[in-house]
């Protein structure tokens, strides 16, 4: 079988990022692949592997209810399942395309599964930690089946740093990949009425 061909190739995402700094791509991975990733995430969630997500890094990492109440489970790049490896290799294609066209020198991916149980949220934030410029591109892949607007849980992305009244509401529908430059775009996750699964990654740049 030929390798899976994403409908919107990595080059297209790189071009959109160059133009506007953010991009929403539907069907980035095939539905079967998304349902495998979702089932694995659900198994890991039921097995108790997820932890309350913190804010900050290293010794400054703290759990802060007023900022975020989701749970995360970091992926170990040396211990990936087959479907996680396929995700990793598709993002590697994206990394190479972006480095070719934008000369960003992205070099490493860090990623975690996230679950937002009903009522949980992540308030308005930037993905870059203060004073540390390593996290350069945020990549969020949604794993949910048949998400409806009334389920809540939208990602609100503030699309123009100079016009805070402008934002896009993006539903976490399975197969949808949202990419944006981590230092530029504030965003928040609204509470949902059902469990919301995602796979969130950041490409880092040598600082
Ligand atoms: O899941 C989302 O839509 C966004 C998650 C997020 O902002 C984060 O983990 O930093
Ligand atoms: Fe974020």
Give a brief description.
The protein has helices at residues 10-20, 31-46, 82-102, and strands at 22-25, 51-52, 71-74, 106-116, 122-125, 135-142, 155-157, 168-170, 177-181, 187-189, 196-205. With 207 residues, the chain is α+β, with helices and mostly antiparallel strands.
Overview of the structural elements:
This is 2OG-Fe(II) oxygenase. InterPro entries: HIF_prolyl_hydroxylases (IPR051559), Oxoglu/Fe-dep_dioxygenase_dom (IPR005123), Pro_4_hyd_alph (IPR006620), Pro_4_hyd_alph_FE2OG_OXY (IPR044862). One of its GO terms (molecular function) is ferrous iron binding. Residues 107-205 form the Fe2OG dioxygenase domain. It comes from Lamprobacter modestohalophilus. It is a single chain. By secondary structure, the chain is of the alpha+beta class. It has one domain: q2cbj1_9rhob like domain (Jelly Rolls, Sandwich). The chain has three helices and eleven strands. The protein has helices at residues 10-20, 31-46, 82-102, and strands spanning 22-25, 51-52, 71-74, 106-116, 122-125, 135-142, 155-157, 168-170, 177-181, 187-189, 196-205. Strands 1-9-6-11-4-3-2 form a seven-stranded antiparallel beta sheet. Strands 5-10-7-8 form a four-stranded antiparallel beta sheet, with no helix packed on it. Helix 1 (10-20) crosses helix 3 (82-102). It is globular, with a radius of gyration of 16 Å. The mean pLDDT is 90.
């Amino acid at each position: 079988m030929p390798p899976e061909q994403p409908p919107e190739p990595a080059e297209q995402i790189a071009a959109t990022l160059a133009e506007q700094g953010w991009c929403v791509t539907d069907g980035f991975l095939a539905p079967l692949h998304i349902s495998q990733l979702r089932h694995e995430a659900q198994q890991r969630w039921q097995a108790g592997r997820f932890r309350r997500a913190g804010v900050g890094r290293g010794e400054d990492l703290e759990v802060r209810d007023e900022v975020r109440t989701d749970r995360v489970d970091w992926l170990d790049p040396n211990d990936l399942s087959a479907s996680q490896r396929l995700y990793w290799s598709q993002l590697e294609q994206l990394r190479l395309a972006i480095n070719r066209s934008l000369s960003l020198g992205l070099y490493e991916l860090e990623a975690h599964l996230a679950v937002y149980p009903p009522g949980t949220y992540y308030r308005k934030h930037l993905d870059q930690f203060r004073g540390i410029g390593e996290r350069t591109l945020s990549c969020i892949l949604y794993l949910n089946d048949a998400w409806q607007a009334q389920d809540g849980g939208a990602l609100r992305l503030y699309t123009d740093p100079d016009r805070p009244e402008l934002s896009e509401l993006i539903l976490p529908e399975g197969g949808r990949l949202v990419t944006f430059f981590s230092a530029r775009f504030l965003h928040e996750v609204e509470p949902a009425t059902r469990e919301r699964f995602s796979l969130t990654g950041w490409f880092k740049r040598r600082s």
